[in-house]
Amino acid sequence: MVVAMMVPVTLPAVRYVGLNSLRCRRRRAMTLYTAVYVGTWALLGVAALGIDHLLRVHLGLSDRLLLVLALLAASGWQLTRAKRRALFACGRTVPLPPFGRRADAGCARFALLHGLRCIQSCWAIMLVMVALGHSSLAWMVALTALVVAEELTVRGRWVTRPAAAMLAVAAGAVTLGA
Fold first, then answer.
1. 42 within 8 A of 2, measured Cβ to Cβ
2. How many CA atoms, within 13 angstroms, populate the side-chain half-sphere of residue 74?
3. How many C-beta atoms lie closer than 10 Å to residue 59's C-beta?
4. Which of 18, 28, 93, 178 is the most exposed place for a label (fewest CB within 10 A)?
5. Number of C-alpha atoms within 13 angstroms, CB side, residue 176?
6. Which residues fall within 8 angstroms of residue 106, CB to CB, at 6 or more apart?
7. Tally of CB atoms within 10 A around 67
8. pTM (2 decimals)?
């Protein structure tokens, strides 16, 4: 799920790493960057699945209630100033050293920084996917399109408010059983 939803968002950063690395180490730098970025998201996923398990099994919350709460959290997060700041931070880059261990460390540091920025921006939308489970391809495609539009286009930054409204409507529809 992480790879399908978040790797499209980081492709410009992978390109940046490739273009700003020496030709002889370009593949290595891009692979290292992608591995650290996906690893960052995977750690968040493990934590989210643990919390999901706790809420479902130990506290007995229903699937529908968890989905409604996740949709409302995502809707509210879309409207915050912190979300807008995180969204703008996702596109920033850092200078990369040209070669050696410093270059590897620089790629890993950039991937970690970019991953943490994207987590700050998109955590609430990923909670919706955790609440849904892995069974809903339509939701995954829709939420991936939203994340890609927000992060990779200038106009996508204007999508946050309509997206918040759509997420709130979806929470209402799930509450009513539609």
1. yes
2. 29
3. 8
4. 178
5. 7
6. 94, 95, 96, 97
7. 22
8. 0.85
